[in-house]
Specification:
Serine Threonine Protein Phosphatase 5, Tetratricopeptide repeat; single chain
Length: about 140
């Protein structure tokens, strides 16, 4: 019986790693449990054991959770934090969301500038067509 209790405790420990908590927060976001996901990402970002390569991802998804509730300023702050991380795998996505946040805030010039920056860094990226459409509406 003791071995069973010990064995039963192992999954709980594995489930409490920063990676497991991150994956659960993303799953919560994907399931439209945005408040729960936001709280989880905020908690993760306060966790000293969070690996550096997950920090930018947490900021990105935290930004997405703010974006989903139309909290454009909060989302901007998070997406800008993503850009502070060198070699971020979320840079392209964050740049697109920055442009969209600026657009939603009525800051057309900033939105256009961010769309240009996105295309400069990722001319053939998945976000490039959307950034090009945004630029079509920008002043020359």
């Amino acid at each position: 019986m003791l071995m069973v209790e010990s064995h039963a405790a192992t999954p709980a420990v594995k489930g409490n790693t920063a990676l497991a908590r991150y994956e659960q927060a993303v799953a919560d976001f994907d399931a439209h449990r945005n408040d729960r996901a936001r709280k989880s990402f905020e908690s993760l970002l306060q966790d000293a054991s969070l690996p550096a390569d997950l920090q930018d991802n947490c900021y990105y998804w935290l930004g997405e959770s703010h974006y989903a509730r139309e909290a454009w300023q909060d989302a901007l702050g998070c997406f800008l934090k993503v850009l502070e991380h060198e070699e971020s795998n979320k840079e392209e996505d964050a740049r697109l969301k920055l442009a969209l946040c600026w657009q939603n805030l009525g800051e057309r010039d900033r939105a256009c500038s961010e769309a240009r920056a996105l295309l400069g860094r990722f001319p053939a990226g998945a976000s490039a067509p959307r950034a090009k459409r945004m630029l079509e509406r920008c002043r020359p």
